[in-house]
Amino acid sequence: MPAHDAPTALASRRTWLTAAFVGTAGAVGALGWRQWQALAPATSAAILPGDDVCLVAPATPYDVASGLPLAAARPVPASARCPVCGMFPGRALDWAAQLIFESGDAHFFDSPLSLFMYLQHPERYSPGRAPQAVAAQYVTDASAGPGAWLDARSAWYVHGSSARGPMRAGNLPALATRAAAQAFAQRRGGRVLAYGEVDRPVIASLAGSGGHGAH
């Protein structure tokens, strides 16, 4: 682009974004916040160009009224969205994972794979969040189902099994013990990995499938 055209293009883009913001604000006022929340995903995708804006799923604050310890695993809110893929983990509780910061804020994930992807590049998915601020990580026990939370760092994972995650692609089912993971692998195939063995090559081999490509 010629140098003299750059200010014009920038002004045009700013004008477009301003118009989009005004239109969005008007929509919120006309519809009311609850209706807007229902329409927001589709509307946001329509008015916010990917090369200008990165939409970040917000962390869920700690609820003092829950009575849970600050770093304890907690129920997945229906409104929570995975910061990696945008899915609602509450719709796939058999696979859900979560990460809790020292502040008590939490991110919920649609699967252990998304949790590992997040941990590779937390700054990509949560700008301003330091990896050192992570207080706890949890995954769902694949043999016990929803609400059976395991410490992600002591869990065992099966890579390459026939089990399909919420995106109908290969994933990393988590089990409480190595023996349980080996039994799972005997039934469904795959190899057993400890937390530290879920490395970049393993994540890369899975991340591109089923829409899990990095933003």
From TrEMBL:
Domain of life of the source: Bacteria
Pfam families: NosL (PF05573)
InterPro entries: N2O_reductase_NosL, TAT_signal
Name under which the protein is recorded: Nitrous oxide reductase accessory protein NosL
PROSITE patterns for the chain: TAT
